[in-house]
Amino acid sequence: MLYICALKHNYVANKRMMVSRDALEKVVKEDMAGIWNVLTSEEKRVVIDNFTIHNYKRNQIIYAEKETPEYLWCLLKGKVKKYKEGIGGRQQIIRLIRPIQYFGHRAYFANEPYVSGAIAMEPSVVGTIPMRIVEELIDGNRQLAWFFIHELSHNLGRSDTKIVNLTQKHIRGRLAEALVVLIDNYGFEEDGETLNIYMSREDLANLSNMTTSNAIRTLSSFVNEHVIVVDGRRIKVLNEPKSANSVRLMFTAKQLREENIAEYLLYMWQLEDIFRACRFDIETVRQRIVDNYPTDEDTKAAMLQWYGDLMDMMRIEGVKEKGHIQINKNVVIQLTDLHQMLLKSVKYPEYASEFYKTLPIIVELRSKSGDEKSGEIETCFNALYGMMMMHLQGRQLSESTQVAMAQISKFVSLLATYFHKDKIKPLFDKEDYQ
Q1: Alpha helix locations (H) across 14-130?
Q2: pLDDT tens across 247-258, in order?
Q3: pLDDT digits (tens, 9 = 90+) for 209-232
Q4: Which end of the chain is more exposed for a tag (fewer CB within 10 A), N or C?
């Protein structure tokens, strides 16, 4: 009976907006530019003819588990959560949707019913295109097919990272990661501190894979440590220097990732080797690293916990001796994907020029190391990391090696710059594929 009511709520209660054709075209062109820019004039006409805008109320079901997928959904305004029912009817929030993001199409491509549901978290506006229309467009437009491959691949990478976070981090780490996710998706209000989303304690718990009581206790501990201020459902992340502990520490590596992805990856690789040198002994890490760090005791405790979480990941993923944890591999994959897109594009000739200057060095490095399996981007980072280790050991580089490393550094720096730009505003449109 509950499932039938949910279906009725979905199909009957949502309001379709009556919008003029010109207004529809403006919405699709501006808000769904990723798709619009790779379509021909005729394909754009087909999209406009079949595009519908819906209004959803807070907590209204958009679609439910086990329903048959029929539409490509795009959130135009508001906030949506994708969830899955667990044991005892408990929800697990598996993804938060922000404007402008697409959802609901994976199940159609997999030829299966929805394995999760979607609910509006606040009054929201959603656009839909029938998936049969999307399928017809993909059949005749390779660029559109690549758009969805790119979209699904990014979602898969985020899911991999989320699984590691939810299964391997302690309660404090999971809740801190949930706050990071909320900031990533919805940002802050005008004060620059208050999260631009008001979530119930139950939703925070469902996002963090913990009980509601644990979420309440962990939030209270963050409040007591003057990391956050909680007022009902409003959460403010404090920016004063005295608050640079627990959650703030969790943000440090993330901020480095956003500012310079290359430096972030080298930093994370260095941490892996430090843990190996300490034989994964938390007390050794405390004595050699944490105790010598010039900060307060609360921050040191948070550092030690975060390092412990990373060491747990390395143990579970079987990279105690060599290799990298999955969250670091994902960075290399993302950089490699962007690298290939930049090379294919006619819009960024300076990038291709720098790459082909670097390619002979990459080939030579592979030949000397005997590692033919590593990709071009991973080979560059291996070289940069090796150079960093030599500097730390006080070893000198030959003049020819210095020249080679300077070229690799220049190339990787350019890739990191484009990675940052792509995160702010997607770099690719139809012209890049011609």
Answers
A1: 21-31, 33-36, 41-50, 106-109
A2: 444 455 655 676
A3: 888 888 898 888 778 767 788 988
A4: N
Confidence bin at 244 (pLDDT 50/70/90): very low
Q: Are 26 and 33 in contact (CB under 8 A)?
A: no
Cα separation, 345 vs 409, whole angstroms: 22
In 162-188, which positions are buried (b, 16+ CB within 10 angstroms) versus exposed (e)? bebbbebbebbbbbbbbbbbbbebbee
Q: Give the other-Cβ count within 10 Å of 278's Cβ.
A: 18
pLDDT tens for residues 386-416? Answer: 998 888 777 888 889 999 999 999 999 999 9
3-state secondary structure of 275: helix
Model's pTM, two decimal places?
0.52
User: How many other C-beta atoms are found inside a 10 Å radius of the C-beta of residue 159?
Assistant: 12
Q: Which two tokens stand for residue 48?
A: 């406009």
Angle at which helices 349-369 and 326-344 pack, to 10 degrees?
130
